[in-house]
Amino acid sequence: MVVFDKPHALNDMPMHYCPGCTHGIIHRLVAEVLDELGIEGRAIGIAPVGCSVMAYNYFNCDMIEAAHGRAPAIATGVKRSDPENHVVFTYQGDGDLASIGMAETVHAAARNENITVIFVNNAIYGMTGGQMAPTSLPGQVTQTSPYGRDVNHCGYPIRVCEMLSQLEGPEYLERVTVNSVKNIRNAKKAIKKAFQNQLDGKGFSLVEVVSSCPTNWGMTPQAALKWIDDNMLPYYPLGVYKDRSAAKEEAK
Amino acid sequence: MAKLTFKTDNCKGCGLCVDACPKKLLQLAKDKINKKGHHPAEITDQAACVGCAFCAMMCPDCIIKVER
Amino acid sequence: MADKVLMKGNEAIAEAAILAGCRHYFGYPITPQTEIAAYMAKKMPKIGGCFLQAESEIAAINMVYGVSSTGKRVMTSSSSPGIALKSEGLSYLAGADLPAFIVNVQRGGPGLGGIQPSQSDYFQATRAGGHGDFRMIVLAPASVQEMADLTVKGFALADKYRMTAMVLADGTMGQMMEPVSLDFDIEPAPEKPWATTGTKLEREHNIVNSLFLAPEELEKFNFDRYERYKYIEENEAMYEEYLVDDADIVIAAFGIAARVSRSAVNEARKQGIKVGMIRPITLWPFPKAPFEKAAEHAKAFISVELSMGQMIEDVQLATKCKAPVTLCNRAGGMIPSPEQVLEAIKNAANGGAK
């Protein structure tokens, strides 16, 4: 009996990510959810600009490549084109979603646009070679903060889930990570819920996945997973930041 | 007894599966190099594998199939 | 003959778009085109369509990109500074070979400029719609009727050639009221097997994309696209000629400038000056043929524009500089008067001696 294999929604093309990069794990989780909910044939994914720019090659569902930061706006168009049938998700990194595309993110959330957003936060611009991201930690050394991120000079990293949770609009916001089997299981639950919410017409669901970048963090894949525990999670605590339906249930 | 199958040519030798195995049954094959130029992951003792699939869950490149 | 209704130019565009099958409109407020959005906001919910006010011009054009990816007719409208913001999206639409219909009701620039009519986005529309090698079909209405006609035409051309068609109007065209016939034969949209509407597990996945990292591949897409553009140049140029056959002096003007110029031509003819006018209706493709032909007999050309002189370069290219081309213009939201154009005609008739 097969207990684990590549999900159908992920195709056979080898992914271009660096060894040990957790993008591959997150891709697989999204694909597993598409399989389990039986929605691959209805799904339309929007790839960002950044490391996952070529995500359109790896998913078997229809895919659209977006301009940098614009995925939520494109997703809005795709969803509104056929709200009953289209299952729409964006897959975006921190530079894409929280810097150049912040307006699109905030307003899609504020409209409670009925889409699913997978937000991969690894605190760095990977594709362009490791520049400071809107989520780079205070003191973090990057190509464009070679002496460490100086918050007096370039400000503080943005906690996206916490910020969006202040809006009335969004349905569901959760931060997860994928640095262990246990955390991967939780991440999958969150991603599945984010898609189920869309199927149930509940609205904007964003899962922030705290991720690693061994290459640009300058460490082994193993050390990068530990760095998530030691440095990322204290600044970006895991948890549910908003769940309107659950809150309503509790209030009953 | 469980069976692991590796898509060896897609392995990038990151070693995340090696660390994930609770029984320490995986290693990067020092004597082999795949098409990508990496030492691919392999199982040292197939008979001892219980098929927990932790290795497959940690693999970023989805190269491990687990059967039980 | 079909009944006519009195409409503002901007409203005529909106109604014609709906008749053409457009059910999705995305926009951001900017003067002087806001009536289009207002009309759509009222009408779309009643016909099962979608009007959505976007958070920015950039978001609006990307919502257009999203709907277009699914194969449906979709539009946005804006005015000069807003079109500049959309230029990123226009380039991506071109790179992904997506059809889209865009309206630019121009105002004076550069910068925030003003809100009065202008034609100073001619270069932007016909040359520099965004980064990279690409073209847009640019349609220049000179009446409220043409605002409607060219909207219907624009949707059809966009679908036919999988590219952006833009109506390049100005504040006057947008705001003026004229009787309009809205009796159109609408061509149904062609099949779009490339659209991303979900595979239904029945086909390979479709990808809408403008990223091609292999230069050989990217080059091929560019060459293929320019083959299509060449075909469009040969087959889709539209223009109107007025009294050109015997003309010594030929005016080139589009939009409101053409209406002003027509009055000046009539007056000059009364005074015995042989003057005519070529009015480009498509600015890209630019109607080169009538200019080439006119250059066989005309002694001078005058480009009448609401800009510092942009179309004049196309007139010079089309006439191959066989005769002098002078500029008669106002800028910054001002409109040339018939008297100013008449002066320019007389000056040209006197051999250009001021």
What does this entry look like structurally?
The complex is a heterotrimer of chains A (252), B (68) and C (354). Chain A is of the alpha/beta class and 252 residues long. Chain A is built from 10 helices and 10 strands. In chain A, helix 1 (23-36) crosses helix 7 and helix 3 crosses helix 4 (102-110). The model of chain A has no long low-confidence stretch (mean pLDDT 97). Chain B is globular and about 30 Å long. Chain C has helices spanning 9-19, 34-43, 57-69, 80-95, 122-126, 144-161, 171-175, 215-235, 255-270, 288-294, 311-319, 338-349, and strands at residues 4-8, 24-27, 50-53, 74-78, 100-106, 137-139, 164-170, 177-181, 207-208, 239-242, 249-252, 275-280, 282-284, 300-305, 325-329. In chain C, helix 3 (57-69) packs parallel to helix 4 (80-95) and helix 10 (288-294) packs across helix 11 (311-319). The longest helix of chain C has 21 residues, at 215-235. Chains in contact: A-B, A-C. The interface between A and C is large, with 37 and 39 residues.
